[in-house]
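Lab channel / #folding
Pinned by the channel admin:
"Please post every new chain as: sequence first, then the structure tokens as a reply. Keep commentary short and put observations after the output so the thread stays searchable."

First post following the new format, from NK:
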Amino acid sequence: MQNTATSNDSDSGRSTLPIIALTMGDAAGIGPEVVVRAATDSQLRSICNPVAVGHPVVLQRAAQLTNTPLRIEEVSDFEVLTDWQPSITSDADIQVLPCVKACGDDVADVPLGAIDSRAGQAAYDCLVAATKAALAGTIAGITTGPLNKAALRAAGLDYPGHTEILGDVCEVDEFAMMLYLPPGDIVKSPNGLGVVHTTLHTSIASVPKLLSTELIASNIRLMDSFMRRVGCDAPRVGVCALNPHAGEEGLFGDEEARLIAPAVEQCLQNEINTAGPIPADALLRRAVGGEFDGVVAMYHDQGHIALKLIGFDRAVNITLGLPIVRTSPSHGTAFDIAGQGVASTEGMIEAAKIAAQLSLSGDCSTL
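Reply from TO:
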């Protein structure tokens, strides 16, 4: 399915730009403030028309807390966005951001910096509403503010994170989390660097039994497909070992020979340029140096630590395997600094830019 929803904002001359939904995430964290600040970024607005998905009171409060010259204007639903025009404001310096209220009013009373079931429920409701709008083609893509897993659980929602909710709502079984560093001065590959995670939000103890040759091969295919989507004609994919020194010939474990190597061989036979299993410490260093365009990690922190260390503010989370475009910044809810106006918006802006670019680059099912 291709999402081509655009806005008809004739005053700004941007009628052909994709509509990107920015979900507010957990109302007790920094999500609302990075959403409102990102929505006023001139570079972002030059490539997409942002719409907030959240509670207008929460978002307006975030704008005031961060001294962001922005007025939140509630719209009835996603369907009106293609013809939406902002109401006239007396102050030319104040921008207007449309907001679809996709959650209950009780979230407006959530205090900052604490786990709250109302915030967990609202974050979930906003994500589901935006996902369904993207599936319907009403919007072109989603960039999600961070949610809190404990708040989800407090609301009775048994999901470990965004990725699993998205897979459920989109009704897909083959999906994966990827961190992506766009081309720039951090990584040497002209195509940027993606790291996809074979297992997601789970304990380290559970990782070995969750791995399978087919799951690893699926993630290699997803990585190859994504890199082609962003313009890499012949992606080079490196696959991490699970154990130190790639198992040291079975001394530290047999997962490399039993599970990972067969997945690599399967993909090589399908003409995917794949190498591995390679010790993770060596592979990620080589990938940053430009030897690989994509890396398949075996578990969450194996890939996250390396990319966040070298490019925390620029790393973008992209969900692969969905029929829609979904991105997010790589940071969390940061309860400790919520409401202080010091949270960086670079990740949110970068994530929304990539969502806009991906929404214009073809069939989303190839992500």
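NK: The two ends are 11 Å apart (CA to CA).
TO: also worth noting, Residues 10-14 have pLDDT under 50 and may be disordered.
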